Amino acid sequence: MVDVSNFSYRRVLARAKESKPVQVTLAEMIRWGCVGLLSAIGVWFASAVHHFDRRSPRKPLLGALLALSTATAVATIVTVGRSSRIPELRSMAAAALGLLAALVFQSALRATRDRSLSLAFSRATPPTLVITGPYRHVRHPLYSAYVLFWSSCALLAGTVAVALLVASVAALYVVAARMEEADIMRSKLAAEYSKYRAATGMLVPIPSKLRLNS
C-alpha cells in the first residue's frame, strides 16, 4: 500500500501556479508559418511529377539531384528546429522568395499545360519549342522555380551547410539545363533554338533581352 496521508493537494496546486506558461513569440509564429508554407510548396512541386515525361533519364545524375534535394529539405527543417531565434524579417523574406518560386512554377505549368515535359537529365527532346509565358524571357523557368525555392530554404536556415547544399542543387540544375540544350542543338530544332537562346536567359531574365522581348 502507498501511504497517501502526507499527500498535499495544496502543494500540487502551488507548483502548478508557479510553473510558467509556454510563450510563443511572434518570431516563432512567423518562423513556423514560413516552414509550413515552404513545406506546402515543396509538396506541390513534388506532386506535379505527373506533368513530366519520365522516360530515359540519366539516372545517376537524377539520383544525385533527388538525394541532395532530400538532404537539403531535412537539413533545413532540423536547422530551423534547433535555432533559438530567427529574425522575423529573414523568415518573411524566405516566405516571399518561396511564393515567388510558386508563382514562376505555376506560370511555367500553365504555359506547358498541353505538353508533357521531360524530367531533369532526360534525353528526350521536345517536338516544338515553348516560347509563351515565362519562357519568353527564361529558357528553363521550372528550374528557376526550383532554385528560388531551395534558395528560400537556405535563407530561412541561415547556415553555411544548408547554403552549400543549395548551391550543389542549383549547380545540378545548371548542368541539366546545359545537357538539355546540347540535346536540342543536335535535333531538328537547332536553328530555331539558337535564335531563341540568343534572346533569353537560361535561369534568370537578362534586362537587355527583356526589352527586346517585351
UniProtKB/TrEMBL annotation:
The record's listing under Gene3D superfamilies reads: 1.20.120.1630
Keyword list (alphabetical) reads:
Membrane, Transmembrane, Transmembrane helix
Q: Which residues are listed as membrane-spanning?
A: 29-49, 61-80, 92-109, 147-176
Q: Where mainly found?
A: membrane
Please give the superkingdom of this protein's source. Bacteria
Q: Where in the cell is it found?
A: Endomembrane system
Query: Would I find Transmembrane helix among this entry's keywords?
Result: yes
Cross-referenced Pfam families = PEMT
Q: Which InterPro entries does the UniProt record give?
A: Phopholipid_MeTrfase (IPR007318)
- Which membrane topology describes this protein? Multi-pass membrane protein
Return the protein name.
Answer: Isoprenylcysteine carboxylmethyltransferase family protein
What is the native source organism of this protein? Answer: Sphingomonas limnosediminicola
The top of its lineage is: Bacteria, Pseudomonadati, Pseudomonadota, Alphaproteobacteria, Sphingomonadales
